[in-house]
Amino acid sequence: MITVPRPGRPRDGGNEGADGAGPAAPTRRRSRVRAFGLRTRMLAAFLLVAAVSAGTTSALTYREARNALLKTAQDMAVSTFRDQVERTGWRLPVEEEGIEEILRDLARTGKPRPWVVFAEYGSIRASSGENPVSSVITPELRRAATADRYGSFERVVKDGVPYLTIGMPTVFKTGPDSTLPTGLVLYAVMRMTDEQINVDALLIAARNGALPGLAVALVPALLAARSVLRPVRELRRAARSMGSGRLDTRIPVRGRDELADLADTFNESAGQLERSVGELRDAEARARRFASDVSHELRTPLAGMLAVTEVLDEDADRLDADTAQAVRLVSAETGKLAVLVEDLMEISRFDARAAELNSDEIDVAEAIRKTLQARHWADDDRIRTELPPDIRARLDPRRFDVVIANLVGNALRHGGAPVTVLLRTEASSSGTLVLVVEVADRGPGIPAAALPHIFDRFYKADAARTRSPGSGLGLAITLENVNLHDGTIRAGNLPGGGAVFTVEIPLRAEEAGR
Amino acid sequence: MRRGGRRGVARRRTRWRGLATAVVAAVGGPLVGGCGIQDSDVIEAGGPATVEAFLNRDADMLLFFRSPDGGLSPVVREVRPSAGFGDEYIEPGAVARDPSGPAGPAPTEKVVLALLSGPGEADRAAGLTTALPAVREKEAVQVEVASDGGITARLPLAVQDLDATAVRQLTCTIAYNQAKDGRGVVTLRGQDGAQRSGSCGLAPGASG
Amino acid sequence: MSRVLLVEDDPFVREGVQLGLRRRGHDVRAAGTGEDGLAALAEFRPDLLLLDLMLPGMTGVQVCRRIREHSQLPIIMLTARGDDFDVVIGLEAGADDYIVKPARPEVIDARIRAVLRRMDDGATGRPAIEVYGDLTIDRVGLTVSKAGRPLTLAPSELRLLLHLSAAPEQVFSRQQLLENVWEHTFHADGRLVDACVARLRGKIEDEVGHPRYVQTLRGFGYRFGPL
């Protein structure tokens, strides 16, 4: 979704990549578990609207349907009951004997289902069931039946069970147009269980109707969320991409809404940032090139000067004292200048990432011994070594020599004797075997304030100190050389006093080439 | 800073909880709360049921007694054969006396006497009683029908002291024996010379 | 002591090195270009050529190749560290050793002596002529012939072959070879050995891809044979 135009330019070194990958991972993890994110909220809003409308519709529909259903059932029951009652004949006065049989006949023919029929006449109370008097029939219904002489019904809920009660007063014909109340009132009591079931079914149906509605609502909800979230996600990804160093990241601008404006602004800002950073980089590159060029240019005259220092040294004795001193000074400083220029060249190559690793499989203990020998430190009683044999590692011999020589030289110059060189192998925390070289001295140690800067170029732990014999680049070059081996170096102080430099280089399992 | 942020989150969470409750109330309320069957008022659904009472106007008489709830209950009683008794009372203007149809075989005087003799065994079994005092003199009843349909009955008892139920018992019994629809104003005259008149008015409005 | 031809374009360096080496007893002739250097070869007949790689016109590498076409003259390249690519090309072109500039005259002198010494101390108490397969090595006459046909080996190649064949089937690490054959310090560039081995194989092996005489032992180094 994000277009990252990538020109042929190779991605700048591992540093930026590592920086970018690190913080990006937790961010991504956080986004996965975000509970009330934009998407969730939009979905919730859509679902809420859908649910309310579906729910309201369902509820209204349900009410109407329920009422219609109940009305049908009730009307049917009342009219059936009246029909049934009108088919009966009674002698007046009504006699208690035989009345229950009539009532049971009535009860059997109940519609939509059997009912219990009660009869009240004078002091006679009878029913088709077990109790002659119903506990469900209310005084209001009784009054409507006896005093108002209307057929009427009432829904009564007793103990959670709904009942339909019908009161039916009776009259008889005294002539073709006239009737007289008989004084007999018949009641029907019907459980509405099935109606309850119907109602429940209706309820479920309404719910089932609402749920698909909600599901359908999800689609526009997701679409809307997507339309908002996609630009947001693109923006986030672009921001992260920029954070990890790809400053040419841009967001495609779609439409004309606020999000498009945001993308536009982002692109503009990114462009400005890219320009600024580009200028900075150019400036830095120019500075580096300049340092490299300067040292290159210095090298040629130095080569000539260095070639004649010997002549100067040898002939100095034959000159008068002042001239001789001047000549020796020039000769000595030429040597130092050569070292400085050589170190500058080396640093420039590291900066330009042009430093190559020419690895060879070597015996590490032997290599360290040779380094000490070459500097005439092998028989120096200021140096103690602990070099177990048979540790072989794939290293660039020249660079490893530089590392050891710089560390030992540094210890001799700034620390105090004895200088200890320890070699061992160790399993690192990640399980790989690492080569460990420790160079420790018994000097005053490194001031705490200097520790973070000890590997900086031209860093002087003691600001007042005069120029040291080294170039001031020794530890910086050491650090670069160790890094080139994928190793680490750290400086610290020993508990008993004295500085210790620890180099760790992973041992490679691969064989020496060629 | 940090604590403030957390409180903000809590507040937001509360707001969401409130919203969720509102949703449940808005959606669930109508769905769940209004379900089931509720009580209802008493709802009228048409008139009373007309039943067969085996009333034979040619052979039966209609008496009104007092039911336990204070109302009147009609009772159908077969006229017992009583030789030569009823014929004497037929008057020359009998046809004119009842223009709505042929008069029942039981003369009203006899019916009134039957009423005055009180509820029978079956009537009492059903809890029916009478509000009329017991009367012995059976010959003392006379019924006259005026030309306008008004009925006048001379009764062998003191009318003045009768309660309303007793008066209605007499009125309805006389009215329904004189006419099938029980209409007509009945005037009661007692031995005490008092006179009360009224109509039965028992017929339900719907079918009357 | 020895006659050194220096080919270096920068006049200041040329003069300085010339001065330094002359002080150490060498007979030095200097040339400013590759063409001049080649021209001086026949007349001056140097024992050794000190050749700057970066030359105007004909480059040091081209000069090196031209000389190797017909001569076993020891050649030491002058190079600046970091110009790694040129070092490899120079070694492949047939240079015997290289020196990183700027270098003190004592370093250059030591390297010159090492290269020249190799040519001298060949035979020490061994039979003069040894035969390995098709290969005949004359440790006294310092000649090598294959199937009767004499081979022209550069000094470093010859020295390497002599060293390896002096102890057949013994494995030498590159660092050991650098120390023993080139008299470098232990920390020199192993590519020097690799380039020399490659050149040597091109001359003595039947199949360069499957060497019989100079064999590689991955991770350890090189050995002579077994045949």
UniProtKB/TrEMBL annotation, chain A:
Instruction: Outline the extent of the Histidine kinase domain.
Output: 293-509
Where in or outside the cell it occurs: the entry states:
Cell membrane
Q: Which InterPro entries match?
A: HAMP_dom, HATPase_C_sf, HATPase_dom, His_kinase_dom, HisK_dim/P_dom, HisK_dim/P_sf, Sig_transdc_His_kin-like_C, TCS_sensor_his_kinase
Matching entries from PROSITE patterns are given as: HAMP (PS50885), HIS_KIN (PS50109)
Chain spans, region Disordered: 1-30
Sorted alphabetically, the keyword list is: Kinase, Membrane, Phosphoprotein, Transferase, Transmembrane, Transmembrane helix, Two-component regulatory system
The organism's superkingdom is given as Bacteria
Coiled coil, from the record: none
Domain HAMP, by residue range, is 226-278
In the record, what terms sit under GO molecular function? Answer: kinase activity
This entry's Enzyme Commission designation comes to 2.7.13.3
Protein name as it appears in the record: histidine kinase
TrEMBL record, chain B:
Q: What is this protein called?
A: Lipoprotein
Q: Which organism is it from?
A: Streptomyces rubiginosohelvolus
UniProtKB/TrEMBL annotation, chain C:
**Where does the OmpR/PhoB-type domain start and stop, copy by copy?**
127-226
Annotated positions of the 4-aspartylphosphate modification: D52
Its keywords, alphabetically, are: DNA-binding, Phosphoprotein, Transcription, Transcription regulation, Two-component regulatory system
- Which residue intervals define the domain Response regulatory in the entry? 3-116
Annotated InterPro entries: CheY-like_superfamily, OmpR/PhoB-type_DNA-bd, Sig_transdc_resp-reg_C-effctor, Sig_transdc_resp-reg_receiver, WalR-like, WH-like_DNA-bd_sf
SUPFAM superfamilies named in the record:
C-terminal effector domain of the bipartite response regulators (SSF46894), CheY-like (SSF52172)
Decide whether keyword 4Fe-4S is in the record.
no
By its UniProt entry, which Pfam families does this protein fall under? Response_reg, Trans_reg_C
Residue ranges forming the DNA-binding region read 127-226
One Gene Ontology MF term: DNA binding
SMART domains per the record? Answer: REC, Trans_reg_C
Q: Know the name of this protein?
A: DNA-binding response regulator
